[in-house]
Amino acid sequence: MTKAPISKALAKSAQRNLGLGYATPIVGGVVALLLGLIIVDITHTNLDIWIWVLIQFILGTGLVLGTRFATAAYNFSLTSAKRVGATRGARNLNLVLGIIWSAIVTIMAFVKGSDAVQRMVIYPRYAPVKDGSAPTPTPPHIEPFNATAMWQNFVPAFVLIVLAVVGIYLLLAERSREAK
Amino acid sequence: MFNALENKFGRGPVALSIPLLGLVVMWLLTILGMLSDLYTNYGVYWDNYALQQELFHLSTYLFLAGVTILGFSAVVARRMAHSLTSNRWESAIRGFTLVAVIAALIICTIFGVGIFMSNFMRVSVGSGQPAPNELMRIVNVYIPIVLDAAVMVFLILRAFVNKVEEPEDD
Q1: Which residues contact B24 (CB under 8 A, 6 or more apart)?
Q2: How many Cα atoms within 13 Å fall on the side-chain side of residue B38?
Q3: What is the per-residue pLDDT across B109-168, written as a single tens digit (0 to 9) for each?
Q4: Phi/psi at A19 (nearest 5 deg)?
Q5: A67, A172, B43, B86: least surrounded by Cβ within 10 Å?
């Protein structure tokens, strides 16, 4: 007599997990995109690399949570042999999105690192010449390392590669979580 | 080599972490390579390709070291995870290490072709420019391509041919 309500509660919980498995990565994506847009609209500037780190962190968190919920629903349907919906689809959706996210963050870390290096090159500004003669060309010079360049350019690029590595680890761990 | 770590954290997590750490090291070496490139492309060498060719390009060897470390770490992890099949977590790690080896091989290929293309196109025969320094061309172009090919062959043999703990097929 007591088994049926518990089973019903578990099935309801699995259905909720399945819904969250589909919704969480999408909600995470929307939150991250809106955050980026709001910051652009408020500051009227291009996105700072630290904002990109935050956006990728939110996207990654949404995917890890989505994978966790989808795997929980999948495990329930596997152990109880009850259909609660397209559990395999939710799990595969999170897998595909996770692969795309991992690739994008890894590539972004390399691109931003390269950008940080190129920002050390200072191109001279030519002053307008009054007598009509051509300005003497001056080669660009390399700025020495300083804390500002390190913090604004190099550290966020490194954080991006660490974020990718941690994200890949967590996505795999959550996807392969066994049924309790 | 990783016995202490395996005993502490388990073979699976260690096998998963090694290629990921290799990726971080590759990123660091790539950035170092780009930094060293600055000092051969700017300053007195700016816009003077003939002069740039006379220099030893440390960046090429730093990039090569990066892809080599990524490849070696992937192969070490692949061999470590070879016998992991008992549950979903271990199978996932095993699959991931295979993907890591394939990704490392693709990056090695792109690196080798990249060196070839960037140096093949730059020598314009009959353009009146001075001929590049032969010794530096061998050091900067030929040797990295040979080393890259050697790394790829080594990775393929270690990952797919010379497997460990393989049950014998009768």
Answers
A1: A161, A162, A165
A2: 20
A3: 999 999 998 887 665 555 666 677 788 889 989 999 999 999 999 999 999 887 655 555
A4: -60, -45
A5: B86
B96 contacts in chain A (CB < 8 Å)? 168, 172
At B132 the three-state DSSP class reads coil
Dig out the tokens for B153 from the structure.
């062959």
A113-140 confidence digits (pLDDT tens): 999 999 998 887 766 666 767 676 677 8
- Subunit contact A176:B91, Cβ cutoff 8 A: yes
Instruction: Give dist(CA B15, CA A12) in Å, integer.
Output: 37
Which of A119, A120, A165, A178 to probe by mutation at the B interface, max B CB count within 10 Å?
A: A165
ipTM confidence: 0.86
Closest chain A residue to B16, measured at CA? A169
- Judge contact between B23 and A105, C-beta under 8 A: no
Q: Which residue has the tokens 């990123």?
A: B27
How far is residue A101 CA from its own chain's centroid?
6
Each domain of chain B, given as residue ranges in start order, spans: 3-122+131-161
